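Bumping my old thread because nobody answered last time. Still need a sequence for this structure:
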């Protein structure tokens, strides 16, 4: 148990149940918010990689990659 968890546990023991519940709810909402941000980020990365496949060779050259590199990048899983 780390310091912040110990501090939170002591605060819950000393305070009323409503305050303890509200802190737990706040932490859950914060965690869900962080998860949604991560999902949004991975979705954007995946979409950008797939869009590489629709660029012309000239457009790919403008951004400094060739067709093979674009295909390789587009085939990567979203978490890489």
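Sorry it took so long. Here it is:
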């Amino acid at each position: 148990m780390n310091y912040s968890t110990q501090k939170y546990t002591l605060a819950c023991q000393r305070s009323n149940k409503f305050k303890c519940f509200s802190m737990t709810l706040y932490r859950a909402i914060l965690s869900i918010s962080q998860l949604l941000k991560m999902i949004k980020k991975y979705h954007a990365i995946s979409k950008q990689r797939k869009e590489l496949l629709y660029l012309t060779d000239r457009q790919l050259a403008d951004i400094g990659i060739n067709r093979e590199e674009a295909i390789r990048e587009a085939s990567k899983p979203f978490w890489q």
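Residues 3-74 form one domain. Let me know if any region looks off to you.
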